[in-house]
Design brief:
The protein is an all-alpha fold. Helix 6 packs antiparallel against helix 9.
Length: 261
């Protein structure tokens, strides 16, 4: 009987790559976690001080309370996108992407590790925003299952989109353009700071074309039980976006698009 015979351990590659991606953002948590939490806190202090007592979006819900879920979800989405996109971009620029491509990882393991790390960073930052704002705002939780579902699906959508942006970009300015001209405007115009019912009719219609609006609105429903559209509609749209982007991302990875030169 042979000893020390190597045995195949399924998902070992996935676990290793995920752990590498986790350490990548956690070892610099002041930059990747604390900084976004501070930004969200500043938004809360400035906007709530300016509009406190002047705006009541939902009956019985103060504007600072309305604002906190939007800021938390905005942080979740932006940081999930930033994690996967910046990791791939840096690996391509430094050339160490080859050490990820050489091992016998399946395209699903590659995709899953980067996606799960992006979701993990988004959720950690979102939890940090709540931990920082709970001292300032009394926030109810009406439907926790809804906020968990939208936090995971929303960060999954942005994590997958970040992988696409990282694969697609060849220079740091291309990635920056993707983030500054697509992700940032869509996030800020998604109802983070307002209800779309306060907008003129044209802008309300335009807001319904923004998938991030449904992530914010559904997530906020988990706290207050109020939303601008049905949470089931929001869940269906966000889930459809997630599966469509996941299939596109996996197909790009399988083809080696801009990964193998």
């Amino acid at each position: 009987m042979l000893k020390n015979t190597p045995t195949f351990e399924p998902l070992r590659g996935f676990q290793t790559l995920f752990y590498k991606e986790w350490l990548r953002f956690w070892k610099v948590n002041v930059q990747t976690v604390a900084a976004p939490v501070l930004t969200a806190l500043l938004f809360l202090l400035i906007f709530s001080h300016t509009l406190r007592g002047q705006t009541e979006v939902f009956p019985g819900v103060s504007y600072p309370a309305f604002l906190v879920p939007g800021l938390a979800m905005m942080s979740v989405l932006q940081d999930a996108f930033a994690n996967s996109s910046s990791s791939l971009m840096q690996s391509k620029m430094t050339g160490n992407i080859v050490f990820v491509l050489l091992p016998p990882l399946s395209h699903w393991e590659f995709f899953g590790a980067y996606l799960l790390a992006a979701v993990a960073r988004g959720v950690v930052v979102g939890a940090g925003v709540f931990a920082a704002t709970i001292w300032f705002v009394d926030l109810p939780v009406a439907h926790p299952q809804w906020l968990i579902a939208f936090a995971l699906l929303g960060s999954g959508v942005m994590g997958a989109l970040g992988i696409i942006a990282g694969v697609r970009s060849e220079k740091i300015d291309q990635l920056a353009a993707f983030q500054n001209f697509i992700i940032l405007p869509l996030t800020f115009l998604s109802g983070v700071f307002y209800s779309i019912h306060s907008l003129p009719a044209f802008w309300q219609v335009l807001s319904h074309l923004n998938p991030i609006f449904y992530m914010i609105d559904g997530f906020r429903y988990g706290f207050f039980g109020h939303s601008d559209v049905s949470p089931w509609l929001s869940l269906a749209i966000v889930a459809a976006c997630f599966f469509a982007l996941s299939l596109l991302t996996v197909s790009l990875i399988r083809a080696g698009y801009k990964l193998r030169h």
